[in-house]
Amino acid sequence: MGRQEHATEAPAPASNPAAVGAAIGSGRDALLVTAGILLSRVFGLVRQRVVGHYFGISAFADVIVASFRIGNLFQNLLGEGTLSASFIPVYARTRAAGRSDEATRFALTALGFLLLAAGAASAVGVALAPALTRILAPGFEGDRLALTTGAVRVLFPMTALLVLSAWALGVLNAHRRFFLAYAAPTAWSAAQIAALVGFGEGLGRRGEPLLAALVWSALAGAVLQVIVLVPAARSLIGTIRPRLDASDPRLREAVARLPSVLLGRGVVQLSGLVDLALVSFFGTGAQAAMSTAQMIYFLPMAILGTGEAAAALPDLAAETAEADLDRRNARLRARLGGALARVTTLTVPATLVLALLGGEILRVCLQSGEFDEAATERVREIVVAYAFALLGNASARVLTTTAWALGDTRTPARYAIGRVVASTACSLVLMQRFEVVGVVLGAVLAAWVETIALGWKLHKQLGGLGLEHVPGARIALLGAASIAPALIVRWALPTPIARTFAGSLLVLAVFGGAFALAAPALGLLDLRSLWRRRARR
Fold this sequence. Notes:
globular, disordered N terminus
C-alpha cells in the first residue's frame, strides 16, 4: 500500500488535494461527535450504575428494560436514524447549493409533519399499552406485566419530545454543530440519576415507588433535552415555527425516501423486540442482564460507529452534488475509506477489551449494591458475545450512511429485512443451548451478513470502498500491543485482588496506557496533529 500518514486521517492520493482536506475535515468532525457521544454515554453509564445499584438484576430491573424499550418504539422509528436518511441529505444539499431560505422552509415543514406524526404515535401508544406489553413481553405475568404496562403509559409521551430533539439534532448536524447535538442526552440521564438518588437515598424509597420516580424523571429529562437543543437549532435557522406545506418539493423528496427508511428502521426495531420477547422466557433478570450487556456494548458502538457515520453524512451528501461521476466517486471513496480506517483502528482494540476484559469493565463501571459479583459474571458472558459484533456493526453504520447520501434508502432496507430473518432464525436455534447468549450470537451472525452485503453493493457502485487506507497489519499489532500487557497484569494478580474494583481498574488502566503508547508509535492515532490542523484552518 505504501507509507501513509496517520490512518485515522486516511488521506486521499496526493493527486486529489480536495479529497485530502475532506478526509481531514471528516476526522475533526468525527472527533467532535465522539466527544459529544462520549459525554452522553458516560452519563448513561452512570445512570445504569445507579439503576443497577438499586434494582440489580431483578424483576423490577426487567420492568425497566421492557418499558423503556416499548416506550421508545415510535421514537426509534421517527427519530435520528430516520432523519439521517431523509431530512439531513436534502437539507444539507439545499444549503450547499446556496439556497438557505428554501432549506429553512423545508426544515420547518419537516418539523410540522414530524410533530403531527409523533403526537399521534404517542396517543396510540398510551391507548394500546396493555396490548403492546403482552405482545412484546409475552413471558411477563402478574406484577411484572402490570408494572410494565403502567410504565409504558408514562413513557410513550416522551416520543413527541424526543422526536423534536432529533429534528433539532438534524439541523445542528447539517450546520456541522456536532458536539452539542450529541452531548444533549446528558440532560435525560441526569434527570433520572437525580431522581434515583433523591428518592432512593434522600427519601429511602425502594421497589415500586422508586420505579415510578425513575419513569417520571425520564419524561422530565426529555423536556430538558428539548430545552437544550431546540434554542440552538433556532439560532441557526431563525425560527422554530412549524409549517404544514405539503407542496414543498424538498418535503416530497424526503417523503419519497421514507417508506424504505421506515421499513429498514422498522425491521431493525422488530429484531430488537423479537430478541426482547425471546429473552423474556428465560426467567427473572434475563432481560436486565441482556440490557446491561447492551449498555456496555453500545458505549464503544455509539462512539465508533454512530459517531463516525453522523460526522460523515453531511459531507457525503454534499459530495453527491458533483456532476462529474468519476470525481464524485473518487471523493466518496476517499471519505468512506477514511471513515472505515478510523472505525477499524479503534474498534479492534475495543473488541479485544470487551471479549477478554468484560468482567473488569463491569466491576469498575457497574458492580455496586444489588449488582453483585454474581450479576457481573452473568452479564460478562453476554458482553463477550456482543464483542464480536462491534466491528461489523460499526462498519455497517458507515456503509449505510454512504448509501443514504447517494439517495439509496432501499438497499439498506432490503438488507435489514434479511438481517432480521437471519437473526431470528439463528437465535431460535442457538438459544436452545446457550439461552440469552444464543439470542445475542444470532444477532451477531446476522450483523456480519448485512455488513458484507452492503460493502459488496457499494464496492460495485463506487468502484471501491477506499480500503487501501485501512492498514490492517498495523491495526492488528495495535490490538495485540494494547491487550497483552493487561492480560499479563491480570494473570500476575492474586485472584481475590484481581476481582476487586482496584484490581480491575489497574488492569484496564494498563490496557489504556499501552494503547496510548502504541497507537501513535504505530502511526495510527495522533490527536495533537489533528487539532493542530484544526487550529491552522
